[in-house]
Every structure is written in structure tokens, then in C-alpha cells.
Amino acid sequence: MERVGFVGLGTMGRAMAGHIARAGYSLTVWNRTPGRAASLVQLGAREAATPTELASTSDVVIICVSDSPDVEAVLFDDDGLAHGLREGSLVIDCSTIAPATARSAAERLADAGVAFVDAPVSGGSEGAEKATLTIFCGGDEADVERAGPFLQAMGRTITHVGPVGAGQAVKAVNQVILAGTYLGVAEGIVLALKSGLDVGQVVDALGGGAAQSWVLANRSGRMIANDYPLGFKVALHLKDLGIALGMADDVGAELPVAALCAEIERDLIARGHADDDMSAVARAIRGGAGLPD
């Protein structure tokens, strides 16, 4: 059985690494901020002092960090993974980063005989906890096949969408669609509130029709209560929209709804809501209607 290293033990990563440990793999973990590994150590994982040390005892390394510079740092800094990875190793990057960064990382690792699969995930903290994530994979077919058992331990729907970088491109599309869905649900909830309707009843009724969505089912309650506990941070979704809007510029596409959502999220961050769940975009719609925001 291959030995696994897991880098990045945040809200998503720690839960995902837990599923790898429970699947019976020999697991080594590392996180930039200390103190995140205790629950995994209880499951039998070993905590490494550096990414290089982790890589030196792993056949497969999974990364789940916040942004393109973070992936480049854990791979290629002086104590990075690249200095411990051996020929024949596999890196699976579950972070959400720019497609070009994924391609560049894959090219640099290939020079050392290390394979790379970009495998960004969707499903939020709930999906990470329940191992029901949707995962978009970019890479060579053989590498994606090798990554399969590890991805299946963390997710439910795993799709090979093309070469390295394609997974990240599909994730960008996912985030664009979510931007519109969150804003649409927020507008509907605010309209129902302002119209004096039984909003819970409205949500139940809509859930049986064409307006049903994961956001309506799982985030409308937060928009009604105006309370947004962490699921997926506003700041991270804004980062993802930045990737998508950059892609749109490159290919000559206009994304007016995504651009509006990004503007709303920048304002939320300026007001101190960077760590709210992204359903907090409802604050802007509520405020425009004279409701508490």
C-alpha cells in the first residue's frame, strides 16, 4: 500500500486527510500553522517537521492549500516537497489555483520524474466532512487512475476532465455558476421576506421545482437568519472568481454576474466579513432592501 503525505490541514484539508487515515493508508501530515494535526495523530498519522521531510517518506502527496503562491511555496521553497520527492512519486493538488500555475508545477516536477494531477474540489466543508466532494481532475490518464483510490476516499463524484490544468479550469466554471446561484437565492429570499411571505414555506415549495439547488437547500436558512458561519470563506471565493475573471479576459468572454459578485465580495471583505461563509453575499441584497445586514 502506498504511503501518503498530506499538506494543508485547514477547514477542508484536515477533514480530507482524516478520510485518508481512516482508509488505512500510512499517513504523514504537515501544516504551515502548528497545532492542526492532533486529531490526525490520534488516527495514527505522523506529523512531519517540513514538507521536504514529509515528501521523503511518501509515495503520494496530496496538497490542499489556499492559493497559487501557497502551492508554489510548499512545492518549491527551500524546505519544499520537491526536495524530498523521488522519481515515480505522485502529487495530487486539491487546492484551487490558476490553471497556468498547475501546468507550470507539473512541468517542473516532470523534470524530476514526478507526476502531477490537479484535482480541485467542490462541496464545501460539509462535503469534506462527509467525503462527498465533487472532484475535477486534470492530468495524464494513468496518473489520474493512480490517484483514484485516494480521491475516492475523500469524494463521491470524480471526473477526469482533461490534461493538467483542466481540473482548475472546470473549478473556475463551477465558481462562476455558484456566484450567480448565491446571488439569485439571496434576491429570492429578500423578495419573500419583504413581501411578508412564510419564507420557510417558500423554500420548501421551491425545492420541489425548477428553482431547487444545493444553495437553496443548504444556505437559504443562513440568508434568512442573516448569520453566516464558516462553510466556504468569502475571501476564498473572491480569489476563485479572480482566477475565473482572468481566464475570461484571456479567452474574450464577459462574465457580468461573476464581476458583480466579486464587487460585492470585495465590499464584504472591506467591512470585515472575509471569513464569513460566502452566503454572506446576501448581506448586500438585504441591505439594499432595508433589512439588517
Give a quick account of the main beta sheet: strands, pairing sense, barrel closure: 6 strands, parallel
Specify the helix fraction band. Answer: 40-55%
The third-level CATH topology of the largest domain is Rossmann fold
Structural class: alpha/beta
Please mark out the parts with pLDDT under 50 across 5 or more consecutive residues, or reply none: none
Number of domains: 2
Shape: elongated
In CATH, the architecture of the largest domain is 3-Layer(aba) Sandwich
Tell me the total number of β-strands: 9
Radius of gyration: 20 Å
**Euclidean distance between termini CA atoms:** 52 Å
Strand order of the largest sheet: 3-2-1-4-5-6
CATH class of the largest domain: Alpha Beta
Query: What count of helical segments does DSSP give?
Result: 13
Describe it:
The chain has 293 residues and is of the alpha/beta class. It folds into two domains: 161 residues, Rossmann fold (3-Layer(aba) Sandwich); 120 residues, Orthogonal Bundle (N-(1-d-carboxylethyl)-l-norvaline Dehydrogenase, domain 2), CATH 1.10.1040.10. The protein contains 13 helices and nine strands. The chain has a six-stranded parallel β-sheet with strand order 3-2-1-4-5-6, with helices on both faces. It has a three-stranded mixed β-sheet with strand order 7-8-9. α7 links the parallel β8 and β9. The longest helix has 29 residues.
